C-alpha cells in the first residue's frame, strides 16, 4: 500500500525536476522550494487514488470469479444428475 504512494510521490518529484530541466532553471532555488512538496503531494494523492481503484477492481474480479466458479459447480451437478438419470433410464428399459 505505502509503496504505491511513495512511488507516485517520487514520480511527482521527478516531474518537478523534469520541468525545471526543460526550463533550464536551477533545481534548488530558494524561491521555488515550496513546489517540491506540492508536486510530491499531488503524486501521492494520485497514488492513493489509484490504490483505491485497484482495490475496487480486484474486488469486482474476485466476485466475478466466485460467480463463475459457482455457475460451473451448478452446471457440473446438473450434468451429473442428468447423466445418472439417463443411465437409470437405460438400465430400466433393458430389464
Q: Can you put this structure into words, describing what you see?
A:
With 95 residues, the protein is mainly α. 86% of the residues lie in helices and 0% in strands. The longest helix is centred in the last third of the chain and has 60 residues, at 35-94. The model has no long low-confidence stretch (mean pLDDT 89).
What's this, in brief?
With 95 residues, the chain is mostly helical.
Name the structural class: mainly alpha
Q: Characterize the biggest β-sheet.
A: none
β-strand number:
0
Show unreliable segments. Answer: none
Spatial extent as radius of gyration: 30 Å
In what range is the share of β-strand residues? under 5%
Percentage of residues assigned to helices? over 70%
Chain-averaged pLDDT: 89
What form results from the Cα inertia axes? rod-shaped
What's the SSE blueprint?
Layout lengths: L1 H22 L11 H60 L1
Question: What are the defining features of this structure?
Answer:
mainly alpha, 95 residues
Amino acid at each position: 500500500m505505502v509503496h504505491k504512494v511513495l512511488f507516485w510521490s517520487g514520480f511527482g518529484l521527478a516531474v518537478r525536476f523534469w520541468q525545471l530541466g526543460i526550463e533550464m532553471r536551477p533545481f534548488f532555488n530558494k524561491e521555488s522550494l515550496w513546489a517540491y512538496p506540492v508536486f510530491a503531494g499531488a503524486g501521492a494523492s494520485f497514488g492513493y487514488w489509484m490504490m483505491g481503484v485497484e482495490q475496487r477492481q480486484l474486488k469486482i474480479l474476485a466476485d466475478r470469479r466466485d460467480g463463475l466458479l459457482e455457475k460451473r459447480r451448478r452446471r457440473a451437478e446438473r450434468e451429473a444428475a442428468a447423466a445418472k438419470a439417463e443411465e437409470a433410464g437405460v438400465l430400466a428399459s433393458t430389464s
